[in-house]
Amino acid sequence: MFKAAEDKMEEMAMVRFLGKFTEHPFLLRFQDDQYPVGQGEPEFTVYFKKAIPVQKLMTSTSLALGEAYMDGDLEIEGNLFQALDHFLGQMDKFSVDQKALKKLIFSSTSKKNQEKEVTSHYDIGNDFYKLWLDKTMSYSCAYFKHEDDTLYQAQVNKADYILDKLYLKEGMSLLDIGCGWGFLLIEAARRYKVRGTGITLSRQQYKEFSLKIRELGLEDYLEVKLMDYRDLPESGMRFDRGGERRHGGTCGAGKLPAVY
Asked: What is the pTM of this model?
């Protein structure tokens, strides 16, 4: 009985909170009750399979609703894009606890935490990424030089542009921090016959890149290591050139001198 009363109180608190999004009429539906919001015929229904703690809505409305949808606790009945447009068009009514949000955005940069973040993102399986990345398996912006460039060609364009900037010569050594699945280093070895080393914290990327090196017969030119970039100074390894296309934003400019 007490649990039911508690759930009902949480439900009513949600209704009061979400009841301010009145730009377009919609219906809030729970397991046993439903509540109209706004004036007129509801244009869509937001169905909550279980209540979201109002504290979460107050901490970050967008994050609370997004996670509820991702977890299957929230469903949109009707036009999803219309519902998104309705809420995103009223973001001034969202609640954001800046202190709590800062902890989410600027998480710990400890080695243990960064390894956890990388593996939780990339180690869900190479087959998943192969479903929607092009065959270079590049997971960063592409360079479309021409209107009819395919995604694959645009990724090749980007790699070529980066390698040209590095002014590589045969026999040089090249380091790629956060090497992903290795396409940049593969291109460098093929085009310039450099010795390349890629580092990653993802076991799935390590596995896939290692396989490509063997398949392409590039064992004399390329290697990939499972390691944190902050362990590089102690490794004793030295390189003629180094690059990290996505990693600067993660490790922060203040950390780069320790690497370079």
From this structure: 0.65
Count of C-beta atoms within a 10 Å radius of residue 135: 10
Question: Which residues partner with 45 through β-bridges?
Answer: 27, 77
Closest CA to 100 of 51, 52, 55: 55
Are residues 233 and 184 part of one domain? Answer: yes
pLDDT tens digits along 70-117: 999 999 999 988 988 888 888 888 877 666 556 655 567 788 888 888
What is residue 253's DSSP assignment?
Answer: G
CA distances from 60 to 12, 28, 237 (A): 19, 19, 44
Tell me the residue range of the domain where 150 lies.
111-259
Our count of domains for the chain comes to 2
Q: In this structure, are 118 and 204 located in the same domain?
A: yes
Pick from 154, 123, 127: which is nearest to 138 by CA?
154
* Alpha helix (H) residue ranges in 72-192: 80-88, 98-105, 111-122, 126-130, 151-166, 183-192
In this structure, the answer to whether residues 238 and 188 fall within a common structural domain is: yes
Residue 200's domain is classified under what CATH number? 3.40.50.150
